[in-house]
Amino acid sequence: MKNGLDDQQSAGDGPEQKAFREDVTRFLAANAKPKQESRPWAVNFHVDPDKARREFEEGRAWQTTRYKAGMAGFTYPREYGGQGGAAWQEQIYQEEAANYGSSSGFVAATIAMLGPTLMAFGSEDQKRTLIPRLLSGEDAWCQLFSEPGSGSDLASLGCRAVRDGDEFIVTGQKVWNSAAQWCDHGFLLTRTNPDVPKHRGITMLLIDMSTPGVDVRPLVQATGAAHFNEVFLSEVRVPVANVLGDVDGGWAAARTVLSNEAAMIGGGGARNYDSLIRLADLYSRRQDPLVRQELADIYARERILEAMSMRIMTAVRQRERPPIDPSLLKLYYTDKRVRSGDLTAFIAGTAAMLTDDEATRWVAAEVVGRYSVSIGGGTTEVQKNNLAERALGLPREPTQDREVPWRELLRN
Is the pLDDT of residue 3 over 50? Predict the structure, then answer.
């Protein structure tokens, strides 16, 4: 059953939208998995690496199914493998797909980050070659940005790429790389000029993860899952033709990826109001006035997030400037995630420490993970700086190193 917002949108369909919605429902009915009643306390990660890999590949296969049926890449030009359509098509598809169990999973996230970046910075050959493979799931991409000493201050990164004729030789380390152990391609930030200020000597390279010298090592998290990785690059040879954007000018492309990542995380983050209601019933706390007040707050925040996400993603799909800074969406979701984690702990209390069933494991995952989004995809502090500078026009944060050559910077 659709929620109230979706019902209003459906009722407002014109003839073109109605016909498209019917096409979508026919496609989903014929190809998608029915939305089965999931286990009440299922978590959104796997501690078994085989199950995690299987879920990744299922998402990739579903993206391929969508693409072959003309149900993917709605706003991308036809010459680049898209449908040449409108942003409302993606919205209608998502509304109807919410009633089914099939999802593109992680692959959808990298399409949201890399697709617009290829459109903005890719060469004509890159767009014609790579975008169809991205939209179809034929290529699965991972982000290779953060380093052990360059997380919040990403522009200080030190992974070196030295030009050797028609190739770059890359040496360095990346970390917190989601799904890198399963992806066959990566978009990589490198330091190509150490003699200019840090933002000006960065180049983005598109690499094949099977290239000799690439070593991916999964990182086990507190939950037991190993979704993140560290990636070591030892004299990896990458063709100069694989530069995305300009040599030494990769920071602009990186900013586009990061902006889309913030919008994707904020708009696509898990909504857990229904689970919190179920938890309140389990612990007989539904009538507690403090719990009811916090539940109402979570519900309102999730609805606001949906509305903001719709506006931002519509603009992104139309290659327009978002009417809301994506950092605001990420910050709002981060705050909501902390609040819902705190409410989870408040509802369950010490009783959740007395058993080891699915419900208490769900509680543990919510409490342990409530600050994770405050770091991933750009820390809260970075997002606040972005919002202050880009949206509010406030002065940049004072710094001593903006014009200092990277080679002279103090580093960890």
Answer: no
The Cα–Cα gap between 241 and 110 comes to: 21
- The pLDDT-based confidence of 207 (bands split at 50, 70, 90) is very high
Angstrom distance (rounded) from CA 230 to CA 245 = 25
**Three-point CA angle 61, 64, 68, nearest 5°:** 145
- 278 is written with which tokens? 């179920």
Return the CATH number of the domain spanning residue range 142-250: 2.40.110.10
Q: Which pair of tokens denotes residue 281?
A: 């019933």
Please write the tens of the pLDDT for every residue from 367-376: 888 888 888 7
Calpha distance 204→246 (Å, rounded): 8
Q: Can you give the residue ranges of every domain in the chain? A: 16-140, 142-250, 253-391
CATH of 16-140, one of 1.20.58.100, 3.90.1490.10, 3.40.50.970, 1.10.540.10: 1.10.540.10
Separation between Cα atoms, residue 34 and residue 367, nearest integer Å: 30
Residues catalogued as catalytic: 261
Tokens of 137: 């799931």
The tens digit of pLDDT for each residue in 350-408 reads: 877 777 888 888 898 888 888 888 887 788 888 898 888 888 899 988 888 788 999 98
Share of the chain above pLDDT 90, in %: 61
Distance CA 347, CA 115 (A): 41
Let me know if domain 253-391 sits in CATH 1.20.140.10.
yes
Q: What is the pTM of this model?
A: 0.84
